[in-house]
Amino acid sequence: MKKVKFVPYSQLGDAWMEPQSFARFTRTCVIWQLFKFARYNLQIIKVLAKGH
Amino acid sequence: MAKVVVLGSGFAGQTAALNLRKSLKKKDHEVTVITPNKKFGYVPSWVWVGVGKMDVSETQFDLAPVYKKKGINYVNGLAKEVHVEEQFVTVDLLDGGSEKVEYDYLINATGPRLAYDMTEGLGPDHGHTVSICTPNHAAEAGEEYLKMVERMEKGETVKMLIGTGHGMATCQGAGFEYIHNIAFDLEQRGLLDKAQIKWISNERMLGDFGVGGMVIGKAGHIVSGKIFAEASFMEQGIEWITGAAVTKVEAGKAHYKTVESSEVQTEEFDFAMLIPAFAGVPIKYITKDGSDITGDLCAPNGMLKVDADYSSAPRGFDNWRKEDWPLTYQNQTYKNIYAAGISFAPPHPISKPAASPDGTPIVASPPRTGMAAGIIGHVVAMSVADIVNGKSSEPEHTASMGDFGAACVASMGKSMTRGSAAVIAMYPVVPNYEKYEYGRDMDATFGDQGLAGHWLKALLHHLFIYKMKGKFGWWLIPD
User: Fold this and answer.
1) Most exposed of A8, B142, B246, B336 (fewest Cβ within 10 Å)?
2) pLDDT for res A7
3) CA of B400: how far to CAs of A27, B53, B83, B223, B329, in Å?
4) CA B307-B342-B335 angle, 5° bins
5) Strands (E), B269-419
6) CATH number of the domain that B83 lies in?
């Protein structure tokens, strides 16, 4: 939580989340992101297909 | 010979012009584009121009060579009047003089007028805020931002205010991208602690984006997008004010009301980028006897009315349905006139409207992103082409925002190794609670964040500039 500098906690809802070290690591892990890149493209194709 | 005229050269106009030219034989039919622009601008990348991470020239290309190659007539000027019965457009040419352009079919794809004037003191030209809504504004914003960086490098703390500058503004996504790109850039420079970054928006909650927010499936749960949006702000130490209508901007001060309070509150800033309200481009619609019927053909904000159900707005949020939204984008009074992209008047917002206690409307207006504009431009062009080619007598191609989805890749930092973007896809854009429990198809609606999102955004930059240039196989690239 050290990076949360200015957020007044009254703004938070009943539920909130904070990414931990593993989640942060996966965001820039090239192998994992290559898999994600393929997945995003397939998901977008699915959205396109549904609208056409 | 049919004469088809397209007003505008943005996503909707360019898509319409290219598809018309592809579907109509050059020797038989004319396609003309009237635009005040000499260059096409790839809007989604202006957010990078605004943080000095991309030169504006990388987001643009000259229109004239493309139109010459494609056999599209190019009138470089500002459309002023549409004479709806005599079927011609008067144009103030940029090189001086005026021209009368005749049409059989007219597609209004002008995009929005950036209505800085609706908020006193807003905007880069006559106000106190920067903008990333035009290429020149984005380049100026980039220069101003780098001046702030210099101040932070000297040890100063700088207050930055990003978001929307009017209670009825749209395009929160662009603001979201900009604030995250600033936070990412400052983090990379080791200056994040020197910035107090604050978001101010007319969204009722973070993650609304003018589409009423969204829920997504995550780890076997249905989760509100609000949580993800809040998490992304918290992670960078960004404060936020939502449900706010900025009413006035002075040097270093933004005044606003909220849905909770009519009392005018003030937020101080050293640097502010606030998206203005969008209105229709001021084109007059004139009948044969000289009567100005703009007020009849257009909504109060100046956007052209089409085949939407405009009587639906007073029925209220709980009774709005996807059937309220237009299918063919054909004007119902003059059926040879269409509107594509941001130029068509939405029947009502998608998000739940609110107001301050004294009645100032506060609602995120419906976004019509590049993808939606492209899809609409495409179907309008196909309908007109079919009518011109004698295949139909009425527009048969449809694209309701309640029937098509949209993918949005929101940059959160530009770097091929450390960058990030939120990848958001939703189907349909306008929620359909009669068909889907959560308003949208959970099988096709998702959101995620990571480096792959940045790769996708970078890929789309090159892919769509290629498409908009009408290069070999351009039509194979989806809208």
Assistant:
1) A8
2) 42
3) 35, 36, 28, 26, 9
4) 30
5) 271-275, 277-280, 284-286, 337-339, 354-355, 361-362, 406-413
6) 3.50.50.60
Task: Pick A3's closest partner by Cβ from B235, B427, B441.
Answer: B235
Are B148 and B271 in contact by the 8 Å Cβ rule? The answer is yes
Q: Give the Å distances, CA to CA, from B49 to B10, B145, B338.
A: 18, 10, 33
pLDDT for res B95: 93
Question: How sure is the predictor about A19, in pLDDT bands with cuts at 50, 70 and 90?
Answer: confident
In a domain, B170, yes or no: no
pLDDT of residue B221: 87
Domain assignment of residue B64, yes or no? yes
Q: Is any Cβ of chain A less than 8 angstroms from the Cβ of B234?
A: yes
A9 and B CB contact within 8 Å: no
The single-letter code of the amino acid at B375 is I
pLDDT-based confidence at residue B109 (cuts at 50, 70, 90): very high
What is the Cα–Cα distance from B465 to B479, expressed in whole angstroms? 12
Element (H, E) at B144: helix B135-153
Residue of B227, B444, B456 with shortest CB distance to A50: B444
d(C-alpha B353, C-alpha B263), whole Å: 19
CA distances to A40, B203, B407, B442, B443 from B217, rounded to whole Å, are 14, 22, 16, 7, 8
- pLDDT (tens digit per residue) in B167-203: 999 999 999 999 999 999 999 999 999 999 999 999 9
**Closest Cβ–Cβ partner in B224, B405, B478 for A50:** B405
Per the prediction, chain B carries an average pLDDT of 96
Higher pLDDT, B279 or A7: B279
Would you tell me the crossing angle of helices B451-468 and A30-51 to the nearest 10 degrees? 50
Q: Closest by alpha carbon to B445, among B405, B412, B399?
A: B405
Domain count, chain B: 1
DSSP, residue by residue, B61-72: EEHHHHHHHHT-
- Identify the residue whose tokens are 């082409």: B385
Cα–Cα distance for residue pair B179/B162, rounded to 1 Å: 6
Residues in B closer than 8 angstroms to A33, CB to CB, are: 450-452, 455
For residue B296, give both structure tokens: 């009849």
Task: Give the structural domain span for B342.
Answer: 3-113+278-388
Q: How remote is the C-alpha of B250 from its chain's centroid?
A: 26
Q: Does the ipTM exceed 0.90? A: no
Domains of chain A by residue range: 20-51
Beta bridge partners of B241: B200
Model confidence at B301: pLDDT above 70 = yes
Residue B60: inside a domain, yes or no? yes
Structure tokens at B226: 């609000």
